[in-house]
Each structure stands twice: as structure tokens, then as C-alpha cells.
Design brief:
The chain has a single domain, classed as Transcription Regulator spoIIAA (2-Layer Sandwich), CATH 3.30.750. It is α/β, with parallel strands linked by helices. The protein is built from 3 helices and 5 strands. 44% of the residues lie in helices and 36% in strands. The chain is globular. Strands 1-2-3-4-5 form a 5-stranded mixed beta sheet. The model has no long low-confidence stretch (mean pLDDT 95). The longest helix is centred in the first third of the chain and has 18 residues.
Length: 101
């Protein structure tokens, strides 16, 4: 799991790539929390274009990011979700809690 970070004007873009499974999600969550703490963004965008596999750990990662952003009165957008990961998110009903494009 790799994350590229781009920050500008209180907007934080995190480009995720690789497998979002139990092992990858744990490290990714730590990186996301550090990036959010450093940037204090109003908007967090999780770009999942590079994700090759995702299980329920990805759901937990997105929900934790959402909780972190709520503490900052901010929001989360999840975009460019590959079909396999989209099926996981749809099965969990995540789109009711987080904007997915």
C-alpha cells in the first residue's frame, strides 16, 4: 500500500495504490492520520485509482478518515474507485456516509 500526498489551500489529496487489506490498511491509516494532522484540511479526497484490491479493511479506513475529518468540521470525498473496491463499498452502504464519485 502506497500513498502519495498533495496539499494546497486546506485541501488534502491522498492517492492510494496497491492492496487495501488488513496489513496495508493499518499502515495507510497511520499515514492518513499524520497527513491530516499536518495539513488540517477542510476537504480530504481519497483517490483510489491505483487500488488493486480492497477488503473490509478499506471500509474501516474510509470511516476512520471520515471520523477524523468530522473533528475538523471537514468532509471526505472518495473518487476513482475501481470496480472490485466499489462492490465492497456498495455492499457496506458506505455511500450513505461518505461521498463517492
Amino acid at each position: 500500500m502506497k500513498i502519495n500526498t498533495k496539499s494546497a489551500d486546506r485541501n488534502l489529496l491522498l492517492e492510494l495504490s496497491g492492496e487495501v487489506d488488513h496489513h496495508g490498511a493499518r499502515e495507510a491509516l497511520r499515514e492518513i492520520e499524520l497527513a491530516v494532522d499536518a495539513a488540517l484540511p477542510v476537504n480530504l479526497v481519497l483517490d483510489m485509482a491505483g487500488v488493486t484490491f480492497m477488503d473490509s479493511s478499506g471500509i474501516a479506513l474510509i470511516l476512520r478518515a471520515q471520523q477524523k475529518m468530522q473533528l475538523l468540521d471537514g468532509g471526505v470525498l472518495v473518487c476513482n474507485v475501481p470496480p472490485q473496491a466499489r462492490r465492497v463499498l456498495d455492499a457496506a452502504g458506505i455511500s450513505r456516509l461518505v461521498t463517492i464519485r
